[in-house]
Amino acid sequence: MSCLLTQGFTLDCLGDNAGGVKEIYITEFNNATAITTVSGAITAITMAAGKQFWKYELYSEQGEVTENAIKKPENGTIAHEQSVKIPLYKQETNKRNELYIVAKNRVLIIIKDSNDKYWLYGEGYGLNLVSRLATFGKLIDDRNGYELEFTGKEPLPSKEVASGIIAALLLPA
């Protein structure tokens, strides 16, 4: 069997592309009842009644998202290891309680990158909060807060999410 290539790529202009994560949006994995994909991009996400995504704002150059494609020719498979790492500032009871609930769930995460594009992680199997490090710091100007790491493995790479659907996802369905 042959998988035909469909396009090439030219060298892009420099300076109109930025790294980093501005925001993430989190919901329980089962809250999304349907995800519509057209040409490899997500055009709609249907949420269960009363459910929504929750916004986590980040300072610049703080969040990190990676996706590593792992091909095993001997098995005929490709998997995509996804990781989302973010800090949250200030340890507070409400954050502690919410993060405890997050840790009990598989979640979907939409990230807004520094180019104002949105990407969905955990679409097929969800992501898990695998590490929640609480630190008070040592020095007065050290961060007091949390370091979160979500990971998961998917059969397909993350997909871009149409920006026009984000506002509706932040309201209860």
Chart the SSEs and their pairings.
Blueprint: E1 21-28, E2 32-38, E3 41-47, E4 54-57, E5 64-72, E6 77-89, H1 93-103, E7 106-113, E8 118-121, E9 127-135, E10 145-154, E11 159-161, H2 166-169
Antiparallel strand pairs: 1-4, 1-7, 2-3, 5-6, 6-10, 7-8, 7-9, 8-11, 9-10
Mean pLDDT across every amino acid position: 95
The arrangement of helices and strands along the chain is EEEEEEHEEEEEH
Structural class: mainly beta
Any low-confidence stretches, pLDDT <50, length ≥5?
A: none
Cα Rg: 18 Å
Largest sheet: 9 strands, antiparallel
Tally of separate domains: 1
User: Which descriptor suits the 3D outline?
Assistant: globular
Number of strands: 11
User: Roughly what fraction of the amino acids lie in strands?
Assistant: over 45%
Question: How many helices?
Answer: 2
What does this structure look like?
This protein is mostly beta strands and 173 residues long. The protein has one domain. Helix content is 9%, strand content 47%. The protein is built from 2 helices and 11 strands. It has helices spanning 93-103, 166-169, and strands spanning 21-28, 32-38, 41-47, 54-57, 64-72, 77-89, 106-113, 118-121, 127-135, 145-154, 159-161. Strands 1, 4, 5, 6, 7, 8, 9, 10 and 11 form a 9-stranded antiparallel beta sheet that branches. The chain is globular and about 60 Å long. The chain starts with 20 loop residues before the first strand and ends with a helix. The model has no long low-confidence stretch (mean pLDDT 95).
